[in-house]
């Protein structure tokens, strides 16, 4: 099969934060965990119902909870042992299912698929196989980023192998040793949809071994490599608005579940940020406890996932289904006297309003300070200059605040990729991205009611 | 400075939600955050934020205005000395100018901030930094002889009707400083136009009329050459460019305006598109009028664009007034159209309209009104290029 030259995708806007604290690219083995957890509340837009009780014995692959909206979509246990705690949050929300692990963990066995078998498996059988192996929920459908319905054939699938966020695992580290899984995953996606597009960063020589899979090359800065941004720039028509989007780790999980016949639990994560001693790449597992990577330090914030869109967590927490990074940030900062009249060599900004623009540092350690107070939008235009999907975030934000959902949708609200740059650059400290994400969630809620 | 920080930390609980003086929180917060960077941290992603905030943003605009302010202070003293027939030393001129200008600035800030604080306390929000700029822009577009009570009334109108009535910062559709000036212009025309540009104690030198360049150009009729008329009144292009001529406090020196423009453009705070658009529109309309000289009567039809550039308040208006981000359009493309229309309308009002020698203020205000429409046209154009993603 001849490979055609990959199409070029150029993402004009975006912003790459020059951050210190990226981990060195050597894989370490994570400490053995005593307890892990599944976090149903971190799967977007599902209504989880527990299938186990405290004290139940589970194996890797035992169904732990399902989505009441579609009970066929089950979430399997990432560990074998005893269910030690089921924790409910506000309004009886199923927050956490903790499992105390056995010394020797057992798997629920599923049938194996040889790579060649995947391509000839019928769609229905493959859908059933993915549901059975608990990897259906790694799939995401646009525009809302929810788990897709098993009944709907997607118009297209957009896979982006690379990663712009330097704190998240880079593709060559994730792919190492898992190439067969990636190929099996792509083969499965090709059965599930007529059009599968696979992108990598333009000029990325580290992915040379899988060049034959690549259909697109993306150039640009964060968030250019994001699957949602890839989808926006590559979609051919309005019919593709409801395409699936996946990153490298998701495709590997699908492939691994099919060719190993086991629910895939191992994953590569990064620990990054200012707590340098803890930083690195770790071979660990889904649901690993945060405490096995970092210890509680004063004035430190811990974030699971990306520092742009991730979740603030405690050291006593666990990494969720879709979390592949742990980021440490200095919490707060000493107050500065007359800070706004200082020359600002030590201030990092997208604008050129500080003298740091003349002598930029190579790598910055940013604390969690808001760096200002909340103000009204002054139409500075910074959010528009960084939006990778060509939106006018401030206009969408204003329409949402004015409760004009129709106008917000017409402006392209549903194309928002959730990268968070609009909020990052806003001098009025408006939570633009969050307002838009909540606006999208409201549309989804109304669609489902 | 640790003692300042500790003092504020001790006071902070009294002004918080449950504190005894909770109502006065905006007052406390204004001084607290002016002196010390706020302690607030992010609550959700993105967990880190850009260093630019509203105070820095407005602070840069104020920095950009300072050359015009300092020049205006000196020039007010200098112009007065020309009429009084004296030749004082440099510092005496500065003092003479300061005595006229600084009270105007002080009244503008004091009265304006009074209204800002009042609205902040009533509406229960923090005092916004926008007024730090408006409070300085307003004096710079007034003559140095303006009565202080008019400064107070003008800024009151500008802050209340130009901004607060619409919901405060970010919600005004007109430039508040310009609205304040327009109010004074129409309500009390005698003290803001005519023979008001020189703050002299007494007119000793009769031959010095104190007329501005715009006044000279407005009264010149064809076939007399308007540039010759200007030069004979002492208004060479070079003198207008440097700015030692009568006029509003901050508008005369194009050099100082250009320094301010440089600061605004280099920092990315002021839109260069608006500024350049204004210049393009100005030159275009002047060129069109130049073509109409054979069929016109007004001398100013022949005035070349580069003269319009250095006369009156055009340079100041294009750089500092038109670029107000809230009242200008949002899109880059819109800013070009907005700027070009401002430049064209300025020349039209200056040349054709006998009632107004200066057209910048009115053209900016009218284009402020048009800004949403210009945006609407360009947004629709952009949206047509997207694949629609609607439910």
Shape designation of chain B: globular
- Taken from the alpha-carbon principal axes, the silhouette of chain A is globular
Can you tell me the residue ranges of chain A where pLDDT is under 50 for at least 5 consecutive residues? none
Q: Give the H and E element order of chain B.
A: HHHHHHHHHHHHHHHH
Count the E strands of chain B: 0
Biggest sheet overview of chain A: 6 strands, mixed
**What is the rounded Rg of chain B?**
23 Å
Mean pLDDT of chain A: 96
Unreliable segments of 5+ consecutive residues of chain B: none
Number of strand segments of chain A: 19
Order of helix and strand elements from N to C terminus of chain A: EEEEEEEEEHHEEHHEEHEHEEEEEHHHHH
Beta-strand proportion of chain A: 15-25%
Q: How much strand content do the residues of chain B show?
A: under 5%
The mean pLDDT of chain B is 93
Structural class of chain A: alpha/beta
> How many H/I helices of chain A?
11
Q: Between the first and last Cα atoms of chain A, what is the distance in angstroms? A: 46 Å
- By helix and strand content of chain B, what is the structural category? mainly alpha
Structure description:
- The complex is a heterodimer of chains A (449) and B (391).
- Chain A is an alpha/beta fold.
- In chain A, 22% of the residues lie in helices and 20% in strands.
- In chain A, the strands form four sheets. A six-stranded mixed sheet of chain A has the order 1-13-12-11-14-10.
- In chain A, helix 4 crosses helix 6 (248-260) and helix 8 crosses helix 11.
- The model of chain A has no long low-confidence stretch (mean pLDDT 96).
- Chain B is mainly alpha-helical and 391 residues long.
- Chain B has helices at 2-15, 25-35, 54-84, 90-123, 130-140, 148-160, 176-187, 213-219, 226-232, 237-242, 254-267, 272-291, 305-310, 314-321, 332-352, 360-383.
- The radius of gyration of chain B is 23 Å and the shape is globular.
- Chain B starts with a helix and ends in an 8-residue tail after the last helix.
- The chains are: A alpha/beta (449), B mainly alpha (391).
- Chains A and B meet through helix 10 and helix 11 of A and helix 2, helix 3 and helix 16 of B.
């Amino acid at each position: 099969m001849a490979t055609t030259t990959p199409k070029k995708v150029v993402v004009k806007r975006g912003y790459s934060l020059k951050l210190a604290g990226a981990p060195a690219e050597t894989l370490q083995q994570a400490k053995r965990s005593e307890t892990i957890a599944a976090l149903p509340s971190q799967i977007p837009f599902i209504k989880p119902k527990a299938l186990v009780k405290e004290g139940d014995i589970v194996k890797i692959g035992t169904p732990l909870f399902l989505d009441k909206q579609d009970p066929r979509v089950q979430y399997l246990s990432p560990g074998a042992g005893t269910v030690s705690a089921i924790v409910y949050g506000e309004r009886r929300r199923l927050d956490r299912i903790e499992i105390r692990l056995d010394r020797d963990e057992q798997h629920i066995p599923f049938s194996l698929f040889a790579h060649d078998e995947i391509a000839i498996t019928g769609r229905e059988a493959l859908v059933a196989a993915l549901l059975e192996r608990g990897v259906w929920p790694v799939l995401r459908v646009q525009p809302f980023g929810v788990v897709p319905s098993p009944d709907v054939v997607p118009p297209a699938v957009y896979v982006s192998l690379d990663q712009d966020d330097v704190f998240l695992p880079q593709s060559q580290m994730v792919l190492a040793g898992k190439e067969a899984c990636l190929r099996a995953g792509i083969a499965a996606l090709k059965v599930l949809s007529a059009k599968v597009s696979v992108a990598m960063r333009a000029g990325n020589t580290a992915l040379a071994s899988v060049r034959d899979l690549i259909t697109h090359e993306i150039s640009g800065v964060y968030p250019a490599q994001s699957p949602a941004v890839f989808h926006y720039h590559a979609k051919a028509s309005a019919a593709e608005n409801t395409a699936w989007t996946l990153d490298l780790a998701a495709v590997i999980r699908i492939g691994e579940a099919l060719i190993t016949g086991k629910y895939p639990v191992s994953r590569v994560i990064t620990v990054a940020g200012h707590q340098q001693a803890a930083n690195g790449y770790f071979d660990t597992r889904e649901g690993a406890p945060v405490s096995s990577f970092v210890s509680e330090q004063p004035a430190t914030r811990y974030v699971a996932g990306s520092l742009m869109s991730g979740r603030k967590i405690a050291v006593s927490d666990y990494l969720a289904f879709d979390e592949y990074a742990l980021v440490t940030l200095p919490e707060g900062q000493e107050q500065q006297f007359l800070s706004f009249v200082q020359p600002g060599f030590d201030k990092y900004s997208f604008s050129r309003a500080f003298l740091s623009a003349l002598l930029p540092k190579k790598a910055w350690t940013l604390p969690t300070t808001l760096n200002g107070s909340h103000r009204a939008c002054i139409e500075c235009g910074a959010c528009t200059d960084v939006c990778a999907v060509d939106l006018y975030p401030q206009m969408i934000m204003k329409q949402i605040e004015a409760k004009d959902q129709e106008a917000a949708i017409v402006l392209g609200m549903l194309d928002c990729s959730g990268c968070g740059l609009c909020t990052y650059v806003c001098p009025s400290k408006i939570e633009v991205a969050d307002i838009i994400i909540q606006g999208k969630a409201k549309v989804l809620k109304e669609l489902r009611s | 400075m640790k003692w300042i920080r500790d003092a504020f930390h001790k006071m902070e609980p009294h002004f918080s939600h449950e504190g005894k003086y909770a109502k006065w929180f905006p007052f406390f917060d204004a001084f607290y955050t002016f002196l010390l960077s706020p302690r607030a941290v992010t609550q959700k992603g993105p967990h880190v934020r850009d260093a630019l905030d509203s105070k820095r943003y407005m602070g840069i605009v104020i920095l950009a205005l300072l050359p015009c302010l300092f020049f205006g202070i000196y020039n007010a003293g200098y112009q007065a000395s020309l009429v009084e027939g004296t030749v004082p030393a440099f510092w005496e001129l500065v003092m003479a100018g300061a005595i006229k200008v600084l009270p105007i600035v002080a009244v503008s800030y004091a009265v304006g901030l009074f209204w800002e604080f009042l609205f902040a306390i009533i509406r229960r929000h923090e005092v916004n930094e926008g007024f730090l700029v408006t409070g300085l822009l307003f004096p710079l577009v007034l003559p140095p002889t303006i009565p202080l009570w008019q400064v107070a009334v003008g800024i009151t109108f500008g802050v209340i009707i130009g901004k607060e009535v619409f919901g405060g910062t970010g919600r005004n559709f007109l430039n508040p400083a310009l609205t304040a000036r327009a109010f004074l212009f129409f309500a009390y025309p005698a003290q803001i136009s005519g023979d008001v540009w020189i703050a002299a104690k007494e007119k000793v030198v009769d031959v010095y009329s104190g007329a501005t360049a715009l006044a000279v150009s407005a009264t010149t009729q064809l076939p007399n050459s308007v540039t010759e008329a200007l030069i004979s009144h002492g208004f060479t292009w070079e003198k207008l460019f440097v700015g030692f001529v009568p006029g509003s406090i901050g508008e005369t020196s194009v050099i100082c305006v250009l320094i301010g423009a440089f600061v605004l453009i280099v920092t990315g705070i002021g839109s260069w598109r608006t500024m350049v658009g204004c210049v393009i529109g100005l030159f275009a309309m002047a060129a069109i009028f130049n073509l109409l000289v054979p069929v016109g009567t007004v001398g100013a039809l022949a005035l070349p664009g580069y003269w319009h550039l250095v006369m009156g308040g055009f340079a100041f208006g294009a750089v500092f007034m038109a670029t107000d981000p809230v009242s200008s359009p949002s899109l880059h493309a819109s800013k070009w159209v907005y700027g070009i229309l401002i430049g064209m309308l300025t020349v039209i009002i200056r040349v054709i309209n006998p009632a107004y020698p200066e057209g910048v203020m009115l053209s900016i205000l009218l284009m402020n009104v048009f800004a949403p429409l210009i945006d609407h046209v360009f947004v629709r154009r952009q949206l047509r290029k997207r694949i629609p993603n609607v439910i």
